[in-house]
Amino acid sequence: MFSSPQALVPGLSPLFGALYARPSQGSTVSPALLLEIAETFSPRFEQHRADLVSVDLRGLDRLFGTPQLVGEEMRRVAASRGVQLHVGIATTRTVATVMAIAQPGLSVVPAGGEAAALAPLSLVLLEQIDAYRPSDRVAPTPVSATVAGMVATIKTWGLRTLGELAALPAADLSARTGRMGLFWQQIARGGDARPLVPTRADERFEGTLELEWPIEGLEPLSFVLTRLLEPLSTRLERADRGAAALQVSLRLIDRTVYARRLEIPAPMRDVRALRTLALLDLEAHPPGTGIDSVTVTIDPTPGRILQHTLFTRPHPTPEQLSTLLARLGALMGEGRIGAAVPVDSHRPGAFAMKPFALDHTAGVGRRSSVAGRQKSIVDSPEPGVRSALRRYRQPVAARVAVADGRPVRVTTDRPNWGGGAVTTAVGPWRTSGEWWEGEAFVSRMSVLSSRPSGVDAGAWDRDEWDVALADGGMYRIFQNRVTSQWFVDAVMD
Questions:
Q1: Which listed site, 45, 53, 249, 256, has its alpha carbon 20 to 30 Å from 32?
Q2: Cβ-based neighbours of 357, under 8 Å, separated by 6 or more
Q3: CB contact set of 343 (below 8 Å; sequence gap of 6+)
C-alpha cells in the first residue's frame, strides 16, 4: 500500500481543505485570486475548476491549532481580499470538497465522521462536483454516460442520498453502471479516488545575457544564442515541451530594444535548428547598431509524438524543413515562398502565398500545387475538346501595333518568343476592379506606371484580347488603360 512521505512523519496526520467560491448575483471570483488564497496556506493545492480548489493542510494544526481554527483563518484571509468562501475541512479531499459545496460557511468533519457527514446529503451533489472526476485513465467514462443520466437512473431505484448510494453492494452497482458507478460510490463513502495533483504555475522559458562589450554581426551573436538556447532546450526536454514560438530581444547601445518573433511550424527543441532560424531571421532584418544585451524567450507547447510506419520512407524532420524554409525565405524574401491559394477577388491571376504546413498526415491522398512561374487554367468549350491557358506569373511587356482600334502586330524582347502579325483577334474584354477605393486607386496607379510588369496587387483596369499570330501561336494580351502599356498575359495550348 502506497503512503506519502508526509503520512509517515509523526504528527502530520492527513488534513485537507476545499475552497469553493459560489457565484452570487452574477458575480464570480477570479480563478487567479482563488489560487492566490490557496497558495497562502500551502504550496500543495489543486484547482479542479474555476471556483473550486482543494488544499493539502498537513502540519498547519501546529501553526494555527485545531482544524476549526485553520478553517476560520482561511475564511478570514479570503474576506480580507473581498471574497466570501465556503470552506470544507476533513481528513480526505473528497469529504472536504463535498462539504464545501453542500454547506455554506465553514464545515469541519472530524476523523471517523466522514460517512455520517455525507450520508444525509442529496445525490444531486454528484452533478455539482463533476469537474472533480479524474481523467479517463483513472475511471473511463462510456461515451453515452453522463453524470446527470446516472443520477436520474439511480433515483429510479428509489435512492435519494449519498448514504443510500454508499450502502449498495459494490458488485451489483458495478454490473449496472460500470466503473463510473464505483467511482461515485467511493465519493459517497468519502474515499479519495486519486492523490492530489498539485497545480503548478506555467513555467517561463527565458534567458538573458548581459554582454561586457557590445557586439556587431551575426557570428558573435551566434555564440551568445547558443549559450542561451542550450539550458532552455534542456529545460524543454525535461518538461516534455517544444518551442512553439521563439522571440529574440536585443538591447542596443542606443538603449532601444529590437525584438524579432518567430512562429515555429512544429514543436522543436533542437539548439542548432532554433539558433539557425533566429540567425536567418536577423540576417534578413538586421539591427541597426551594436548589441548590449540578448534575451531569448520561448513559448512552450506539448511535445509532438510521431509514429513511423514500417513500409514508407520517413519524412524529413520538422527541424530540417523549418531550417530549409527559413533559408529560402532569407534568400527569396518574405512572402515569396509557400503554397499558392486563391483569394476573394476577380483580378486575373490573383493568388496569395500561404506558408507550408508541416503536418504530413493532412496531405495524404491530396495533391497540393506550389506557385510556379506559370498558372494553368483549363476550360472545356465543348465535350471532347480541351484547351489550356498558361498564364505568365509576371506578364511579358510587349509592343503592339494597332489599326482601327485592333491589334495587328505583337512583338516582345523575350528570347525564344516568336511574335509577328496578328491573323485573328477577338476582343476587347474590359475588366477592372478596386477602383472604388478612391485615393488609394490613384496612388496605386502612380506606382503602377513605374512597374514594367503592369500588375498591381490592388486596383486594375485593362482591355484583354485573344489573338492568333502568323507563327501559329495563340495568346492573350491586354492593355493597361492607365499607362497604355501592352503585355502578353498567357499562351493558349
A1: 249
A2: 265, 363
A3: 350, 351, 352
Q: How many Å apart are CA 255 and CA 65, to the nearest integer? A: 55
Which residue reads 463513502 in cell numbers? 189
- Summarised one tens digit per residue, pLDDT across range 312-326 is 776 666 667 777 777
Residue whose C-alpha cell is 501595333: 401
Amino acid identity, position 10: P
Q: Alpha-carbon distance 491 to 493, whole Å?
A: 7
Global pTM reads 0.48
pLDDT digits (tens, 9 = 90+) for 58-98: 888 788 888 899 889 989 998 888 888 899 999 888 899 89
Cis preceding linkage at 428, omega within 30: yes
User: From CA 296, how far away is CA 221, in angstroms rounded?
Assistant: 12
| CA gap 467, 470 in Å, rounded | 10
| Residues contacting 292, CB < 8 A, separation 6+ | 210, 211, 214, 251, 252, 253
Q: Is 477 within 8 Å of 408 (Cβ atoms)?
A: no
Identity of the amino acid at 132: Y
**DSSP E strands, 72-132:** 86-90, 106-108
Cell numbers for 301: 507547447
Q: For residue 73, which amino acid is it? A: E
b/e sequence 288-306, b meaning 16+ C-beta within 10 Å = eeebbebbbbbebbeeeee
CA 93 to chain centroid: 34
Joined grid coordinates for residue 199: 497545480
